[in-house]
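Propose amino acids for all 244 sites.
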């Protein structure tokens, strides 16, 4: 939902409008963001595992992010921000679409959660955060390298960054665009295959931003297990990175 332009802005108006139009039913598990609802538990399990490993935490702790700050870039209406807050983090969520931020604020208030939401460009943010996340966002930017550098600038020393994105494979094109968008599981026009990023390229982009990739795991799908963490990176994958 963001990119780098000649003016230095990382916000792409067309992307913001596309996702902003989904704000009304973002929290409906059967609505236009249904696939994100299916992805979220898988992504959260990965985040929890990486958080526990990175800070050597008790995997049974109910609030592992207590005392830590978290930034979610491209937060939508807060699908990830809310569980991060429940994990104890002081959470800031930013998105380019005002409609999504309004929906996020309303939903958090209804849940009794204190989360800072802003309509903002990551390049314009100040401060640093212990945990920086940006899930299913980097494939929507014009300049992924500049975007990741902007994320890295917000990562505190000793912090952890987690990204996710579709792989650039025939399998991801078939499932994500041909089938999911073709049959209305994901709104048409959400993805551009040419912007999908292969893991090897992602590692280069992270290195160029002064980050070191510490883990890569896939999100695969099967008839028996549905979406799940896997060594198979061909559909979608998550990466964890730290300052080099």
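Proposal:
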């Amino acid at each position: 939902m963001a990119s780098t332009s000649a003016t230095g802005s990382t916000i792409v108006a067309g992307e913001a409008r596309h996702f902003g139009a989904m704000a009304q039913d973002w929290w409906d598990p059967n609505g236009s963001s249904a696939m994100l609802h299916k992805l979220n538990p898988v992504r959260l399990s990965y985040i929890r595992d990486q958080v526990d490993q990175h800070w050597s935490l008790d995997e049974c702790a109910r609030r592992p992010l207590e005392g830590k700050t978290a930034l979610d870039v491209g937060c939508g209406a807060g699908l990830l921000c809310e569980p991060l807050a429940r994990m104890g983090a002081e959470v800031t969520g930013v998105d380019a679409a005002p409609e999504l931020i309004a929906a996020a604020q309303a939903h958090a208030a209804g849940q009794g959660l204190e989360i800072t939401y802003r309509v903002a460009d990551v390049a314009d943010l100040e401060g640093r955060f212990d945990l920086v996340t940006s899930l299913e966002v980097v494939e929507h930017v014009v300049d992924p390298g500049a975007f990741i550098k902007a994320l890295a600038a917000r990562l505190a020393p000793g912090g952890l960054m987690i990204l996710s994105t579709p792989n650039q494979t025939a399998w991801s094109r078939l499932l994500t665009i041909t089938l999911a968008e073709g049959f209305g599981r994901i709104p048409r026009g959400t993805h551009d295959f040419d912007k999908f990023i292969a893991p090897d390229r992602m590692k280069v982009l992270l290195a160029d931003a002064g980050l070191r990739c510490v883990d890569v795991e896939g999100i695969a799908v099967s008839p028996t297990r549905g979406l799940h963490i896997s060594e198979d990176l061909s559909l979608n994958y998550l990466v964890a990175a730290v300052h080099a």
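Residues 76 and 116 are 13 Å apart (CA to CA). The radius of gyration is 17 Å.
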